[in-house]
Design a protein that fits this description.
Distance between the termini: 45 Å
Shape: globular
Oligomer: single chain
Bound molecules: zinc ion
Helix content: 40-55%
Strand order of the largest sheet: 1-2
Structural class: mainly alpha
Order of helices and strands: HEHHEH
Number of domains: 1
Number of strands: 2
């Protein structure tokens, strides 16, 4: 399990570099790394992961909601290293969200992209 330990270390470095806590706009106090996830701000995770042949396929046709980093296999550590490199370069493409807020972001994204909600102000999810 040396590989797994290495992977966690890189993940923790990313979390640390991004402030070590959930960055939910409304505020959130979650700082437990086990409850934090690396999130691609613009939902580009699917495309990016494809670059790394994550699971050999893109997850989620729309790319939305594919930012849940349940990665396995050797490729995932390369992927985390890639993200860490980008973060240390000052990339603003990544943020840290707790598992709950990552789920919430997914729900909001899905809601706002629904045809009947497009252009609706406020969107039902803003309640
Ligand atoms: Zn949170
Ligand atoms: Zn919405």
């Amino acid at each position: 399990m040396i590989g797994a330990r290495k992977k966690k270390a890189v993940r923790l470095q990313i979390i640390e570099a991004l402030g070590g806590r959930c960055m939910w706009p409304g505020g959130c106090d979650v700082t437990d790394p086990d409850m934090l996830q690396v999130d691609h701000v613009n939902g580009g995770g699917g495309r990016e992961r494809k670059l790394f042949s994550f699971r050999g396929q893109a997850v989620g046709a729309s790319g939305v909601g594919s930012d849940h980093y349940n990665m396995s296999g050797n490729r995932s550590s390369d992927y985390y290293k890639h993200i860490l490199g980008r973060v240390l370069e000052g990339s603003k493409d990544y943020q840290i969200l707790c598992a709950n807020h990552n789920s919430k972001k997914y729900v909001i994204d899905r809601c706002c992209k629904r045809k009947e909600n497009r252009g609706k102000v406020p969107c039902p999810c803003a309640a």
